[in-house]
Structures are given as structure tokens and as C-alpha cells.
Design brief:
Helix content is 45%, strand content 11%. The chain is an alpha/beta fold. β3, α3 (75-83) and β4 form a beta-alpha-beta unit.
């Protein structure tokens, strides 16, 4: 079964301006554990003492998920991570020629020695620790470098190799640039050596292809996929948690046990504390995700929501809704009147038409009409004008 690693508390906090205090991180981790995420990557403790504190709180909270820390390929960083009480450790070090020359001024052989030394050290400290090695910017590094470093890392004690699409370079449409190519190639190389580490993938969304690449990797046999809430992360972020879960739910034959009813509440919570609004048309959790507007659509879903929905919103603990505006039809107005408890007006065709016309007029301002707050006022205005019109007609 595919495993999900959520990195909202590490990669997500690398979104410019985002900061989650320890108590907020703990609450987010609790949501993720309730949903059924397998691994919660809680941060890099070497960055700040408060991050280390938060990781410790989460690691000792008794969650079902494994709790992980992320660190550079340094023994001191490994020590800081293990002091937090984690049972999952991610170690990263690049093996691209450019990074080795420009950043580290070493060759591949020295780089591999360093990787092996640090991973072996981590394994010595904690026998049951799950260790992941990430050759940073995997997909733009020479394949032979990646294979050599990954082989050495597994032999030194790593359980997982992460294929990092650090710059969002991969695409499902070019074989030697697809994430599936890297997954299949690494699995085949390991199998030849009778080594079977799990393969994790970390896809950035620079080209808008993170989800497509994640699904491509799943099809190729990846074991773990990294995500964040709202797709938060460096630059354009990474794979969105909700989007991946719903797509995998459709694909996986043995239905996973994820509890998707927590997603909406989690997203609202992360949005509030990251100070980043959820786009109205964000799939699944956006305000408009299950909102019907055009007259033809509303007429159809009034009979059967499946006519214009391929997903059941109740899976996410929410309900379908309708919007009023320029695209609305007569039926939408009647449904909206029912929604605000004014069913008795529906039989008054002339009044409904007046309300309908007023809605069209107000819609020209270019902002949504709030059914709960604005429609009652529109009804009162149209009712008063209808009564005035009737009085004037009788007087005349």
C-alpha cells in the first residue's frame, strides 16, 4: 500500500512568510494523524530551537504516524534530530556535479564517503530508526551518481531513497525526464543487488505538474509520496495532500483507510495560521468546489447532484451549495428562497421574477451575492416595492 508523508510542518513552513508556533504544529499534526497520514515530517531542528521543541512535542504525542525530522548530512544535525525523539530521519546531500563543485568543492567519491559516514552514525544511534537518504535535485543529477550514492546509502543503513524533483523539472510526457523513469530505474538497479529499499518521491510544482508526476510515480511503483496541505512549500510548493488522496482513492484497488472528513477543517486551520487564503476554486476544499451557479447546472443538480458532480462532498464532511448572480436561473432563486426559509414566497411568481431581476442587477457589481446575508434584504426590498406597486395600482 502506498504511504503518504506530509511535510506541511517542514516543507510547508519554507513558504515565504509562513510560521507555525509549536502548539499550532501539534494541532496540525493531530489533524494529519486523524486523516491517516503515515509519516509526519515535523521540521529541521537545526534551523531553530523552537522548531526542535515542536518536533519533540509531536514525537511524544502518541500519534500512530511516524514522526520525522529532516537534516543536512552532518553528525551534529543528526544528533539534534534524534534528541527530539523522532523515529524517522531524513538526511539529504546533493550528488550533482554542479553542486559538488560549486557548493562543496569535493568529488563524488568524497561525497559518498560523507553520506555513508553520517548514515552509519545515525544507524548506530538507533537500531529501529527509519532512515531516508535524499540525493537532492535527483532528477537533474547524473543517473550514475544517484545510483552510486543511493546504493552506498542503503548499504550503510538507509531504508528509503527519496527521488527529489527539487526544481519541478520532471514531466510525465518525456521518458527520460519522467519521475516514473527514475523510480523504475532505481528499483531495477537495487533489485540487481538484492537490495529493496522503499522509494519515496518529492515533486515540486514549478511547472504545475506535481500531482501528475506523483501519480506517474505511483503507477511506476513508488512506495511513499510527499505532500503538504494546500501544496505549500518553496516557490510553487509541492503535491497537494487533498488532491493526491482523492485521486489515489479512485485508483487503488484495495481502498485506503484515510478519513477525508477532516480535510476541510485541516485546510481552513492551516489557511488561517499560514495567513494564505484558499483559492475559491481549489479542488475539494475551495469555496466553489461544490458550488453550482449556471442556470443549466442548478436545474440539473436540483434533480440529481451527480449530473454535475463526480465526487460526493459528504466524503469531505461538506455539502453542495448554489450561488446567485448573473448566470443564475429562475430555479436557482426558488431554491435559494427555500434555503433561507422563505418557501411561502415561491408561489408568488411575480415576486420571484422581481427578486430574480434584482439579483441580475446586483450581480453587475462583480462580486458574489451572499445568500444568507444579502438575499433576505433583496426579498424585503422586492416585497416592499411589490406592495407599493399594488397600492399605487389600486389608487389609480
Amino acid at each position: 500500500m502506498i504511504q503518504i508523508l506530509d511535510s506541511t510542518l517542514r516543507e510547508g513552513e519554507q513558504t515565504p512568510g509562513v510560521y507555525f508556533p509549536p502548539e499550532i504544529k501539534l494541532a496540525i499534526a493531530q489533524f494529519l494523524d486523524c486523516i491517516g497520514v503515515d509519516i509526519i515530517e515535523a521540521g529541521n531542528p537545526a534551523v531553530d530551537r523552537e522548531i526542535a521543541l515542536a518536533i519533540g512535542l509531536i514525537a511524544n504525542a502518541g500519534f500512530k504516524a511516524k514522526i520525522g525530522a529532516h537534516c543536512l548530512c552532518r553528525k551534529d544535525d543528526v544528533k539534534k534530530a534524534l534528541e527530539c525523539g523522532v523515529n524517522f530521519l531524513g538526511i539529504f546531500f546533493s550528488v550533482s556535479e554542479q553542486r559538488l563543485q560549486q557548493d562543496y568543492d569535493i568529488g563524488l567519491e568524497k561525497a559518498i564517503e560523507k553520506i555513508v559516514e553520517v548514515i552509519a552514525f545515525a544507524r548506530e544511534q538507533q537500531e529501529n530508526l527509519v532512515i531516508r537518504y535524499t540525493p537532492e535535485d535527483t532528477v537533474r543529477s547524473p543517473m550514475e551518481n544517484v545510483i552510486a550514492a543511493a546504493m552506498a546509502a542503503v548499504r550503510a543503513g538507509a531504508n528509503i531513497i527519496s527521488i527529489a524533483d527539487t526544481t519541478g523539472y520532471t514531466t510525465p510526457f518525456a521518458r527520460n525526464r519522467s519521475i516514473s523513469y527514475y523510480v523504475k530505474t532505481l528499483k531495477a538497479e537495487f533489485a540487481r543487488e538484492h537490495l529493496y529499499p522503499k522509494i519515496e518521491i518529492h515533486c515540486h510544482n514549478d511547472r504545475g505538474l506535481a500531482l501528475a508526476n506523483a501519480l506517474d510515480a505511483y503507477k511506476a511503483g513508488a512506495d511513499i509520496i510527499d505532500v503538504t496541505v494546500m501544496g505549500l512549500g518553496e516557490r510553487s510548493g509541492i503535491v497537494d495532500l487533498a488532491e493526491l488522496l482523492i485521486n489515489l482513492t479512485d485508483i487503488i484497488e484495495e481502498k485506503p483507510s484515510w478519513n477525508l472528513s477532516y480535510l476541510k477543517e485541516l485546510y481552513d486551520f492551516v489557511s488561517e495560521h499560514s495567513h494564505i487564503s484558499i483559492s475559491p476554486h481549489h479542488p475539494l476544499v475551495g469555496k466553489n468546489a461544490f458550488t453550482h451557479y449556471a442556470g443549466v447546472h442548478v436545474n440539473a443538480v436540483a434533480k440529481d447532484e451527480r449530473l454535475y458532480q463526480s465526487l460526493n462532498p459528504e466524503i469531505f464532511g461538506i455539502k453542495s451549495s448554489l450561488a446567485l448572480g448573473m448566470q443564475s436561473g429562475y430555479i436557482a432563486v426558488k431554491l435559494a428562497l427555500k434555503q433561507i426559509g422563505r418557501e411561502e414566497l415561491i408561489e408568488n411568481q411575480d415576486l420571484v421574477i422581481k427578486i430574480f431581476q434584482k439579483i441580475k442587477e446586483i450581480a453587475k457589481r462583480g462580486t458574489p451575492i451572499d445568500i444568507e446575508k444579502e438575499l433576505p434584504a433583496i426579498v424585503e426590498y422586492c416585497t416592499a416595492s411589490q406592495i407599493t406597486g399594488e397600492i399605487c395600482s389600486v389608487s389609480g
